[in-house]
Amino acid sequence: MEINSLTLPSSRMPILLKDSPSGAPQQHNKGQVNQLRIALNRRNEKGASGGMHSSVDSSSLLQKNSRKRMFPQSDGVFPDTKDDGYMPKQTSLCVLMLYYTENGLFPLAQTTWEQLLYSSFVPSVEFISRLFDAYAKHGKFDEVVNILRYVDMRNFSILPNVYSLAICCFGREGQLELMEDMAKEMASRGVHVSSKTGNAFVLYYSIFGSLKDMENAYGRLKKSRFLIEREVIRAMASAYTRERQFYELGEFIRDVGLGRKDLGNLLWNLMLLSYAVNFKMKSLQKEFLQMVESGFRPDITTFNIRALAFSRMALFWDLHLSIEHMEHENVIPDLVTFGCVVDAYLDRGLGRNLNFALNKMNLDDSPMLLTDPFVYEALGKGDFQMSSEAFFEFKTHRKWTYRALIQKYLKKHYRRNQIFWNY
Fold it and tell me: What InterPro entries does the annotation carry (predicted)?
């Protein structure tokens, strides 16, 4: 269906571009709004004098004002008018709408929105997404609902996508009740819930909700027969870790299924972590062997989960075997691995034997940190690792190696109990 251009009488153009007299944001942006008004008027006058339609060349106007930082680039939100179906006047109003909303000029944004409603305006999903984000940034969730109602009233085909955008918008801001109400409305209207929307529910409940709410959302996702995504698994694992519910974490991982190849070693590493935190060493070893037998190749995170547990339990022989296994699998040790060895020996007063423990590791490599961060959430960082990261923060031209870091740390370690008298 062809969309007619929105023609504004010359008497109404000042109303559209009139500065709002109230609020600090309007005063702050007054100069930019005036520049935009002058640009629009000049373009319209030029078009009228040339016998052309008095619409604004929105593409060039957008690029010009983007360079002046009046509002950001469209990023594909307003594609070429021939492909998108928007007439130039409508595209210009969309640009104004986003600019006003992102800068908190809500009276002007409302006026522009009304002008768009008077035309046969069919918004794109990208435009609505940007608009939702702008309103949510300022806490204007009622405006998000109003836009959704407009799309619903006009019976646009993008309604399911707009529902999903609204749910994600509410979820990102922690508005779980609004997110839940929107889901119930979708179900009552018979709107299909996509896998992305279902995963978004679990994700935001993991971040902002309780464990019970999160598990209920996960249960609904399973009933819908949707596959849980990697990001959501990590968020749920982080929620269990925050509450120190590691048995529940292990049960969740088993429920997802350890055989999923598309997630790499993520599920197996989380399972091993649930045992390592509680130092269930037999179960840890059993699951590790099961992982290898199932065709999964251990990575640096897998080895370091075991190394951290061995280090803190002073299981030196198992720690040495784990390092030899890493060498056999061509897995390069990182800062966490070295920290496990150094901390294990120094905490038991065995610093003299440290050279024997490190002789199979390349001390002249540059330090790297390759372990997945969820390990630190559960097990924390060792003293050597924290000390080394503190050295990295100094802006020096020195090229650090593991050998240099260990020497610095040993010097600090042996001096920690010395008392210096200032006479």
Answer: PPR_rpt (IPR002885), TPR-like_helical_dom_sf (IPR011990)
CB 365 within 8 A of CB 402: yes
Exposure string of 56-73, with b = 16+ CB inside 10 Å and e = fewer, is bbbbebbeebeeeebbee
For helices 230-242 and 211-223, what crossing angle results, to 10°? 150
pLDDT per residue as tens digits for the range 305-357: 999 999 999 999 999 999 999 999 999 999 999 999 999 998 888 878 888 88
Residue 75 in tokens: 């990023």
Helices assigned H by DSSP within 315-414? 316-328, 335-347, 354-358, 374-379, 383-393, 402-414
What element of type H or E holds 283? helix 281-293
With CA atoms as reference, report the closest residue to 131 among 117, 145, 152. 145
**CB–CB of 130/98 below 8 Å?**
yes
Tell me: the pLDDT tens digits for 263-282? 989 999 999 999 999 999 99
Q: Each residue of 206-220: pLDDT tens digit? A: 999 999 999 999 999
Q: Residue 387: which of 363, 422, 412, 351 has the closest Cα?
A: 412
Mean pLDDT over residues 396-416, rounded? 82
Cβ neighbourhood burial of 354 (10 Å; 0-12, 13-18, 19+) = middle
Write down the domain spans for the chain: 298-423
Q: Comparing C-alpha atoms, which of 111, 76, 98, 88 is closest to residue 40? A: 88
Mean pLDDT (the chain, rounded): 80
How many other CB atoms sit within 10 Å of the CB of residue 8? Answer: 18
Q: Hey, is 42 helix, strand or coil?
A: helix
Q: Which of 125, 122, 119 is nearest to 1 (CA)?
A: 122
HSE-CB at 79 with a 13 A cutoff on CA atoms is: 9
